[in-house]
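User: Show me a protein chain along with its predicted structure.
Assistant: Here is one chain, sequence first, then structure tokens.
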Amino acid sequence: MTRTIVVLNLVLIVAAVSYAQASDATQRHASEPVKTVRSGKVRFAYYERPDAVAASATFYINGSERTSLFKNFVALSALFANHGKTLTAPASVQFNLDATTYRDGCKYKDNHQLVISADNKLLISTDLNPAQVSANEERCIELYAFSLSYEQFVQLANAKKVEFDLGRKKLKLTEDQLNALRTMLRGIGHY
């Protein structure tokens, strides 16, 4: 995967594990997983001290890994984690969007409204706050974070058709991407 996507995914995992470890005052940094199980685009990671498990998936909803070093793309990562040795249903699922634009300035900086519909029903409409914007003459990297309740995530994953409106861009999740989200759901109680 491209460096940006790998870094974004690692940031998500470190944040989740740090959250899971926050109550343990003796442990202040996220450790490497002691075990990782992969299922397609989904990664289930197990941690020790304290015990924690995380489920994550990252994929391109616009552009591709092959062209990401020179063409615009939007990547989406989903993550949830909990204490213990088995994945449980979370209260919410964290999402991060990486919108990278080459030579066109920051495409979403001034219009970062996000609307997600599942099976033609509004799931969420929110104004995203940029977690980080890094721009130079060659490219602009905009990172946005949002979360969905567990119930909204279930609706999203089980939908037949999911559309994202980000700024003025309309994006759709593919069946393969929806299957990754469904795999995360099926991992609850299993991994």
